[in-house]
Amino acid sequence: MKIANNKEAIILAVWVLILASGFAAFYFILPNERQIHFAIAKQSLTTAKTVHLKTPSSLKAIYITSWTAGSIARRKKLIDLIDATELNAIVIDIKDYTGRVSFLIDNQELQAIGSTKKIIPDMAALIKELHDKNIYVIGRIAVFQDSYLVSRHPEWAVKKDSDRNAVWQDYKGLAWLDVGARGVWDYVVLLAKESYALGFDELNFDYIRFPSDGNMKDIYYPWSDGYEKPEVLREFFSYLHDNLKSFGLVLSADLFGMTTINTDDLNIGQVLEVALPYFDYIAPMVYPSHYPPTFLGFGNPATEPYKVVRYSLNAAYERSSTTPQKIRPWLQDFNLGAVYTAAMVRAQIQATYDAGFDSWMLWDAANRYTPAALFSNNATTTN
Q1: pTM recorded for the entire structure
Q2: Predicted confidence band at 111 (pLDDT cuts at 50, 70, 90)?
Q3: Which of 39, 204, 282, 381 has its CA 20 to 30 A from that of 98?
Q4: Crossing angle between the packed helical segments 123-132 and 182-198, to the nearest 10 degrees
Protein backbone atom coordinates (compact mmCIF):
# COMPACT_ATOMS: atom_id res chain seq x y z
CA MET A 1 0.00 0.00 0.00
CA LYS A 2 2.82 2.38 0.87
CA ILE A 3 4.68 1.39 -2.33
CA ALA A 4 1.53 1.99 -4.39
CA ASN A 5 1.09 5.39 -2.80
CA ASN A 6 4.74 6.23 -3.58
CA LYS A 7 4.23 5.17 -7.21
CA GLU A 8 1.15 7.33 -7.54
CA ALA A 9 3.07 10.23 -6.00
CA ILE A 10 5.90 9.76 -8.50
CA ILE A 11 3.46 9.68 -11.43
CA LEU A 12 1.70 12.75 -10.12
CA ALA A 13 5.04 14.58 -9.74
CA VAL A 14 5.99 13.70 -13.30
CA TRP A 15 2.70 15.09 -14.62
CA VAL A 16 3.11 18.23 -12.58
CA LEU A 17 6.62 18.65 -14.01
CA ILE A 18 5.34 18.15 -17.56
CA LEU A 19 2.51 20.63 -17.08
CA ALA A 20 4.83 23.14 -15.47
CA SER A 21 7.27 22.80 -18.37
CA GLY A 22 4.48 23.33 -20.88
CA PHE A 23 3.25 26.34 -18.93
CA ALA A 24 6.76 27.84 -18.91
CA ALA A 25 7.27 27.15 -22.60
CA PHE A 26 3.97 28.77 -23.46
CA TYR A 27 4.63 31.96 -21.50
CA PHE A 28 8.37 32.32 -21.64
CA ILE A 29 9.61 30.46 -24.72
CA LEU A 30 6.77 30.34 -27.21
CA PRO A 31 5.46 33.74 -28.37
CA ASN A 32 2.24 34.76 -26.67
CA GLU A 33 -0.57 36.54 -28.50
CA ARG A 34 0.81 40.02 -27.76
CA GLN A 35 4.26 38.97 -28.98
CA ILE A 36 2.76 37.53 -32.16
CA HIS A 37 0.85 40.76 -32.89
CA PHE A 38 4.01 42.79 -32.21
CA ALA A 39 6.04 40.55 -34.55
CA ILE A 40 3.42 40.89 -37.30
CA ALA A 41 3.31 44.66 -36.85
CA LYS A 42 7.09 44.88 -36.94
CA GLN A 43 7.20 42.71 -40.04
CA SER A 44 4.62 44.89 -41.82
CA LEU A 45 6.70 47.99 -41.05
CA THR A 46 9.81 46.45 -42.52
CA THR A 47 8.31 44.72 -45.55
CA ALA A 48 5.56 47.12 -46.65
CA LYS A 49 7.91 49.56 -48.37
CA THR A 50 6.83 52.75 -50.13
CA VAL A 51 7.90 52.93 -53.75
CA HIS A 52 10.71 55.43 -54.42
CA LEU A 53 12.31 56.25 -57.75
CA LYS A 54 16.06 56.38 -58.17
CA THR A 55 17.50 59.86 -58.64
CA PRO A 56 18.02 60.51 -62.37
CA SER A 57 21.71 60.79 -63.26
CA SER A 58 20.83 63.93 -65.22
CA LEU A 59 17.98 65.51 -63.30
CA LYS A 60 15.89 68.21 -65.00
CA ALA A 61 13.16 69.61 -62.81
CA ILE A 62 10.58 72.35 -62.45
CA TYR A 63 9.12 73.73 -59.22
CA ILE A 64 5.42 73.99 -58.42
CA THR A 65 3.69 75.47 -55.40
CA SER A 66 1.34 73.48 -53.22
CA TRP A 67 -1.57 75.52 -54.62
CA THR A 68 -0.67 74.53 -58.17
CA ALA A 69 -0.27 70.91 -57.08
CA GLY A 70 -3.68 71.07 -55.42
CA SER A 71 -5.37 72.14 -58.66
CA ILE A 72 -5.92 69.20 -61.01
CA ALA A 73 -6.24 71.50 -64.04
CA ARG A 74 -3.12 73.58 -63.32
CA ARG A 75 -0.89 70.67 -62.41
CA LYS A 76 -2.02 68.69 -65.48
CA LYS A 77 -0.57 71.34 -67.78
CA LEU A 78 2.79 71.08 -66.05
CA ILE A 79 2.75 67.29 -65.96
CA ASP A 80 2.00 67.39 -69.70
CA LEU A 81 4.99 69.73 -70.12
CA ILE A 82 7.21 67.18 -68.36
CA ASP A 83 5.82 64.38 -70.53
CA ALA A 84 6.49 66.35 -73.72
CA THR A 85 9.99 67.58 -72.94
CA GLU A 86 13.34 66.55 -71.50
CA LEU A 87 12.10 67.26 -67.96
CA ASN A 88 12.08 64.24 -65.65
CA ALA A 89 11.47 65.62 -62.14
CA ILE A 90 9.25 67.95 -60.17
CA VAL A 91 9.67 69.89 -56.92
CA ILE A 92 6.51 70.31 -54.83
CA ASP A 93 6.07 72.38 -51.68
CA ILE A 94 5.61 70.31 -48.55
CA LYS A 95 5.94 73.39 -46.33
CA ASP A 96 6.36 76.88 -47.77
CA TYR A 97 7.36 80.19 -46.13
CA THR A 98 4.01 80.44 -44.33
CA GLY A 99 4.80 77.32 -42.33
CA ARG A 100 1.68 75.46 -43.40
CA VAL A 101 2.15 71.84 -44.47
CA SER A 102 0.30 71.34 -47.74
CA PHE A 103 -1.38 67.99 -47.05
CA LEU A 104 -2.88 66.14 -44.10
CA ILE A 105 -0.61 63.74 -42.23
CA ASP A 106 -1.80 61.04 -39.84
CA ASN A 107 0.70 61.80 -37.10
CA GLN A 108 -0.37 62.87 -33.62
CA GLU A 109 2.58 65.20 -33.03
CA LEU A 110 2.02 67.08 -36.28
CA GLN A 111 -1.72 67.16 -35.71
CA ALA A 112 -1.15 68.66 -32.25
CA ILE A 113 0.89 71.48 -33.79
CA GLY A 114 -1.88 72.02 -36.33
CA SER A 115 0.36 72.99 -39.23
CA THR A 116 -1.11 70.52 -41.73
CA LYS A 117 -3.66 71.88 -44.16
CA LYS A 118 -5.60 70.27 -47.00
CA ILE A 119 -4.07 72.30 -49.82
CA ILE A 120 -3.22 69.18 -51.83
CA PRO A 121 -6.16 66.85 -51.05
CA ASP A 122 -4.78 63.86 -52.96
CA MET A 123 -1.04 63.97 -52.29
CA ALA A 124 -0.53 60.20 -52.27
CA ALA A 125 -2.49 59.78 -55.50
CA LEU A 126 -0.53 62.61 -57.13
CA ILE A 127 2.80 61.01 -56.21
CA LYS A 128 1.60 57.67 -57.63
CA GLU A 129 0.53 59.38 -60.86
CA LEU A 130 3.94 60.99 -61.18
CA HIS A 131 5.75 57.76 -60.37
CA ASP A 132 3.67 55.90 -62.95
CA LYS A 133 5.04 58.39 -65.49
CA ASN A 134 8.57 57.83 -64.15
CA ILE A 135 8.71 61.41 -62.82
CA TYR A 136 11.02 61.84 -59.82
CA VAL A 137 9.29 63.70 -56.96
CA ILE A 138 11.13 66.14 -54.70
CA GLY A 139 9.44 67.63 -51.65
CA ARG A 140 10.53 71.15 -50.68
CA ILE A 141 10.55 72.16 -47.01
CA ALA A 142 11.08 75.83 -46.11
CA VAL A 143 12.74 75.50 -42.72
CA PHE A 144 13.52 78.60 -40.65
CA GLN A 145 11.16 81.09 -42.27
CA ASP A 146 7.94 79.86 -40.68
CA SER A 147 5.44 82.30 -39.23
CA TYR A 148 3.00 79.54 -38.30
CA LEU A 149 5.42 77.59 -36.10
CA VAL A 150 6.50 80.87 -34.49
CA SER A 151 2.87 81.49 -33.55
CA ARG A 152 2.72 78.08 -31.85
CA HIS A 153 6.20 78.18 -30.33
CA PRO A 154 7.30 81.80 -29.89
CA GLU A 155 10.10 80.56 -27.62
CA TRP A 156 11.81 79.21 -30.78
CA ALA A 157 11.60 82.53 -32.62
CA VAL A 158 14.15 85.17 -33.51
CA LYS A 159 13.51 88.07 -31.13
CA LYS A 160 14.05 91.82 -31.02
CA ASP A 161 17.18 92.84 -29.18
CA SER A 162 15.37 95.88 -27.80
CA ASP A 163 12.57 93.71 -26.39
CA ARG A 164 13.59 90.09 -26.02
CA ASN A 165 10.01 89.03 -25.41
CA ALA A 166 8.93 90.40 -28.80
CA VAL A 167 9.17 88.40 -32.04
CA TRP A 168 11.39 90.00 -34.69
CA GLN A 169 10.06 90.32 -38.25
CA ASP A 170 11.75 90.99 -41.57
CA TYR A 171 10.77 93.78 -43.97
CA LYS A 172 7.97 91.61 -45.36
CA GLY A 173 6.49 91.18 -41.89
CA LEU A 174 7.51 87.51 -41.73
CA ALA A 175 8.75 85.85 -38.55
CA TRP A 176 11.77 83.54 -38.39
CA LEU A 177 12.78 80.60 -36.26
CA ASP A 178 16.17 80.66 -34.56
CA VAL A 179 18.47 78.23 -36.40
CA GLY A 180 19.73 76.94 -33.06
CA ALA A 181 16.31 75.97 -31.66
CA ARG A 182 16.47 72.17 -31.25
CA GLY A 183 12.69 71.85 -31.16
CA VAL A 184 12.61 73.08 -34.75
CA TRP A 185 15.15 70.44 -35.75
CA ASP A 186 12.99 67.65 -34.34
CA TYR A 187 9.93 69.05 -36.08
CA VAL A 188 11.69 69.17 -39.45
CA VAL A 189 13.04 65.63 -39.06
CA LEU A 190 9.57 64.33 -38.21
CA LEU A 191 8.04 66.12 -41.21
CA ALA A 192 10.74 64.78 -43.51
CA LYS A 193 10.22 61.18 -42.33
CA GLU A 194 6.45 61.37 -42.75
CA SER A 195 6.82 62.89 -46.23
CA TYR A 196 9.28 60.22 -47.31
CA ALA A 197 6.93 57.52 -46.02
CA LEU A 198 4.21 59.03 -48.21
CA GLY A 199 6.35 58.55 -51.31
CA PHE A 200 8.49 61.64 -51.91
CA ASP A 201 11.75 60.51 -53.49
CA GLU A 202 13.86 63.34 -52.11
CA LEU A 203 13.60 66.05 -49.46
CA ASN A 204 14.81 69.53 -50.42
CA PHE A 205 15.50 72.01 -47.61
CA ASP A 206 15.16 75.73 -48.31
CA TYR A 207 15.51 78.79 -46.05
CA ILE A 208 18.23 76.98 -44.14
CA ARG A 209 19.82 80.20 -42.98
CA PHE A 210 19.65 83.18 -40.69
CA PRO A 211 17.55 86.19 -41.82
CA SER A 212 19.08 88.46 -44.46
CA ASP A 213 16.85 91.53 -44.43
CA GLY A 214 15.00 93.55 -41.84
CA ASN A 215 16.24 95.66 -38.98
CA MET A 216 19.43 93.71 -38.39
CA LYS A 217 20.52 96.15 -35.68
CA ASP A 218 17.60 95.06 -33.49
CA ILE A 219 17.85 91.30 -33.78
CA TYR A 220 18.53 88.67 -31.13
CA TYR A 221 18.96 84.91 -31.45
CA PRO A 222 18.01 83.35 -28.09
CA TRP A 223 19.27 79.88 -29.12
CA SER A 224 22.26 80.82 -31.28
CA ASP A 225 23.60 83.80 -29.36
CA GLY A 226 27.34 83.51 -28.76
CA TYR A 227 27.93 80.96 -31.53
CA GLU A 228 29.27 81.43 -35.05
CA LYS A 229 26.41 81.21 -37.56
CA PRO A 230 28.09 78.65 -39.88
CA GLU A 231 28.77 76.38 -36.91
CA VAL A 232 25.13 76.49 -35.81
CA LEU A 233 24.09 75.54 -39.33
CA ARG A 234 26.74 72.81 -39.42
CA GLU A 235 25.19 71.23 -36.33
CA PHE A 236 21.73 71.45 -37.89
CA PHE A 237 22.95 69.88 -41.15
CA SER A 238 24.65 67.11 -39.17
CA TYR A 239 21.46 66.51 -37.19
CA LEU A 240 19.42 66.17 -40.40
CA HIS A 241 21.96 63.78 -41.87
CA ASP A 242 22.29 61.63 -38.76
CA ASN A 243 18.55 61.33 -38.24
CA LEU A 244 17.44 60.84 -41.85
CA LYS A 245 20.13 59.14 -43.93
CA SER A 246 19.84 55.85 -42.06
CA PHE A 247 16.22 55.66 -43.27
CA GLY A 248 17.36 55.95 -46.89
CA LEU A 249 16.25 59.53 -47.51
CA VAL A 250 17.86 61.51 -50.34
CA LEU A 251 18.60 65.03 -49.07
CA SER A 252 19.26 68.30 -50.89
CA ALA A 253 19.84 71.86 -49.71
CA ASP A 254 19.19 75.25 -51.30
CA LEU A 255 21.89 77.91 -50.85
CA PHE A 256 22.27 81.50 -52.01
CA GLY A 257 23.93 81.69 -55.41
CA MET A 258 26.74 83.84 -54.03
CA THR A 259 27.87 80.94 -51.83
CA THR A 260 29.66 79.50 -54.87
CA ILE A 261 31.89 82.59 -54.98
CA ASN A 262 32.02 84.03 -51.47
CA THR A 263 34.08 82.25 -48.84
CA ASP A 264 32.46 84.13 -45.96
CA ASP A 265 28.98 83.26 -44.68
CA LEU A 266 27.21 86.30 -46.23
CA ASN A 267 26.06 87.02 -42.64
CA ILE A 268 23.42 84.31 -43.01
CA GLY A 269 25.55 81.32 -41.99
CA GLN A 270 25.74 79.67 -45.41
CA VAL A 271 29.17 78.39 -46.51
CA LEU A 272 29.36 75.89 -49.37
CA GLU A 273 31.99 73.69 -47.72
CA VAL A 274 29.96 73.53 -44.51
CA ALA A 275 26.90 72.12 -46.31
CA LEU A 276 28.58 69.75 -48.80
CA PRO A 277 29.33 66.81 -46.46
CA TYR A 278 25.78 66.47 -45.15
CA PHE A 279 23.64 66.46 -48.31
CA ASP A 280 23.39 64.36 -51.44
CA TYR A 281 22.86 67.50 -53.53
CA ILE A 282 23.50 71.22 -53.09
CA ALA A 283 21.31 73.60 -55.09
CA PRO A 284 22.83 77.08 -55.38
CA MET A 285 20.24 79.61 -56.57
CA VAL A 286 22.35 81.16 -59.33
CA TYR A 287 19.58 83.42 -60.67
CA PRO A 288 21.37 86.16 -62.67
CA SER A 289 18.84 88.75 -61.49
CA HIS A 290 19.93 88.19 -57.88
CA TYR A 291 23.54 89.30 -58.37
CA PRO A 292 24.63 92.87 -57.52
CA PRO A 293 24.90 95.43 -60.35
CA THR A 294 28.70 95.45 -60.06
CA PHE A 295 29.05 91.69 -60.50
CA LEU A 296 31.78 90.91 -63.08
CA GLY A 297 31.50 94.53 -64.19
CA PHE A 298 28.01 94.03 -65.64
CA GLY A 299 25.64 96.96 -65.33
CA ASN A 300 22.78 94.46 -65.14
CA PRO A 301 23.78 90.80 -64.51
CA ALA A 302 20.24 89.66 -65.40
CA THR A 303 20.99 90.40 -69.05
CA GLU A 304 24.03 88.08 -69.03
CA PRO A 305 22.58 84.70 -67.99
CA TYR A 306 25.25 82.49 -69.56
CA LYS A 307 28.22 84.42 -68.20
CA VAL A 308 26.80 84.77 -64.68
CA VAL A 309 25.79 81.11 -64.34
CA ARG A 310 28.99 79.81 -65.95
CA TYR A 311 31.22 81.92 -63.69
CA SER A 312 29.30 80.92 -60.56
CA LEU A 313 29.26 77.23 -61.38
CA ASN A 314 32.91 77.18 -62.43
CA ALA A 315 33.69 78.37 -58.90
CA ALA A 316 31.34 75.75 -57.44
CA TYR A 317 33.06 73.01 -59.43
CA GLU A 318 36.47 73.98 -58.08
CA ARG A 319 35.24 74.11 -54.48
CA SER A 320 33.41 70.77 -54.72
CA SER A 321 36.11 69.05 -56.73
CA THR A 322 35.93 65.77 -54.79
CA THR A 323 32.13 65.55 -55.17
CA PRO A 324 31.27 67.83 -58.14
CA GLN A 325 28.03 66.10 -59.08
CA LYS A 326 26.55 67.13 -55.75
CA ILE A 327 26.02 70.56 -57.33
CA ARG A 328 22.59 70.91 -58.97
CA PRO A 329 21.69 74.57 -59.53
CA TRP A 330 18.40 76.41 -59.52
CA LEU A 331 18.08 78.41 -62.76
CA GLN A 332 15.94 81.44 -63.58
CA ASP A 333 12.77 81.17 -65.66
CA PHE A 334 11.06 84.35 -64.49
CA ASN A 335 11.19 88.02 -65.44
CA LEU A 336 13.29 90.05 -63.04
CA GLY A 337 15.93 92.49 -64.16
CA ALA A 338 15.11 91.49 -67.73
CA VAL A 339 12.40 89.75 -69.72
CA TYR A 340 13.57 86.16 -69.85
CA THR A 341 13.31 84.64 -73.30
CA ALA A 342 13.63 80.98 -74.20
CA ALA A 343 17.18 81.66 -75.38
CA MET A 344 18.12 83.18 -72.00
CA VAL A 345 16.72 80.21 -70.09
CA ARG A 346 18.51 77.79 -72.40
CA ALA A 347 21.75 79.75 -72.03
CA GLN A 348 21.74 78.98 -68.29
CA ILE A 349 21.19 75.28 -68.96
CA GLN A 350 24.10 75.27 -71.41
CA ALA A 351 26.28 77.13 -68.89
CA THR A 352 25.50 74.40 -66.37
CA TYR A 353 26.67 71.70 -68.76
CA ASP A 354 29.73 73.70 -69.80
CA ALA A 355 30.73 74.09 -66.14
CA GLY A 356 30.80 70.30 -65.81
CA PHE A 357 27.41 69.54 -64.25
CA ASP A 358 24.62 67.24 -65.44
CA SER A 359 21.54 68.41 -63.55
CA TRP A 360 19.48 71.57 -63.06
CA MET A 361 16.13 72.83 -61.77
CA LEU A 362 13.99 75.70 -63.10
CA TRP A 363 12.32 78.16 -60.75
CA ASP A 364 9.35 80.39 -61.35
CA ALA A 365 7.21 81.27 -58.34
CA ALA A 366 4.17 81.61 -60.62
CA ASN A 367 4.90 78.18 -62.19
CA ARG A 368 4.71 79.52 -65.75
CA TYR A 369 7.61 77.92 -67.59
CA THR A 370 9.01 78.43 -71.09
CA PRO A 371 8.43 75.32 -73.23
CA ALA A 372 10.57 76.69 -76.07
CA ALA A 373 13.61 76.63 -73.74
CA LEU A 374 13.30 72.86 -73.38
CA PHE A 375 14.16 70.08 -75.79
CA SER A 376 11.32 67.79 -76.73
CA ASN A 377 11.15 64.27 -75.39
CA ASN A 378 12.13 62.91 -78.79
CA ALA A 379 15.13 65.19 -79.29
CA THR A 380 18.64 63.86 -78.92
CA THR A 381 20.52 65.97 -76.42
CA THR A 382 24.19 66.16 -75.56
CA ASN A 383 25.67 67.91 -72.58
Answers
A1: 0.86
A2: very high
A3: 282
A4: 60
